[in-house]
Amino acid sequence: QVQLVESGGGLVQPGGSLRLSCAASGFTLGSAAIGWFRQAPGKEREAVSCINWSDGSTYYADFVKGRFTISRDNAQGTVYLQLNSLKPEDTAVYHCAATPFMTSRQMCILHSGRYWGQGTQVTVSS
User: Fold this and answer.
1) Number of C-alpha atoms within 13 angstroms, CB side, residue 64?
2) Tens-digit pLDDT string for the chain (126 aa)
3) Which residue pairs from 104-107 have beta carbons closer than 8 angstroms and sit at least 24 positions apart in sequence?
4) Angle at alpha carbon of residue 83, lines to 110 and 10, rounded to 5°
């Protein structure tokens, strides 16, 4: 059974940081791309960042602008998203997704997720 379980969301002040985690299991990670997507109330879902599990190559949305970093831990089967310099407009539910046989760039550009996690809420507010 495929599972993607996110954690690490919460309430943080503007300028603060959070680290989101996505624990993946139930499928072969080696050929997959893992991505983070977010959706704010009343807005469409948008891609944040994606990573190739096999070689670690990454793709970032333009609005990230060096503030966020995606990484993976092979041993733990976990993908992380480090969020720095958070802004109120970063408030959203952040979802982890996985798609076999796809590159990170394809996944983020096409918003393609074969498997999805339940999401974790990130709220940036003073």
Assistant:
1) 21
2) 889 999 999 999 999 999 999 999 887 778 899 999 999 999 999 999 999 999 999 999 999 979 999 999 988 999 999 999 999 999 999 999 999 999 999 999 998 899 999 999 999 999
3) 104/33, 104/35, 104/50, 104/51, 104/52, 104/57, 104/58, 104/59, 105/50, 105/57, 105/59, 106/33, 107/33, 107/35, 107/47, 107/50, 107/59
4) 105
Token duo for residue 114: 């074969």
Distance CA 94, CA 41 (A): 12
Query: Largest Cα–Cα distance in the chain?
Result: 41
CB 104 within 8 A of CB 35: yes
| pLDDT at residue number 44 | 95
Q: Which of 17, 22, 84 is nearest to 53 (CA)?
A: 22
C-alpha 59 chain-centroid distance = 11
Burial 32-53 (b: 16+ CB within 10 A, else e): bbbbbbbeeeeeeeebbbbbbb
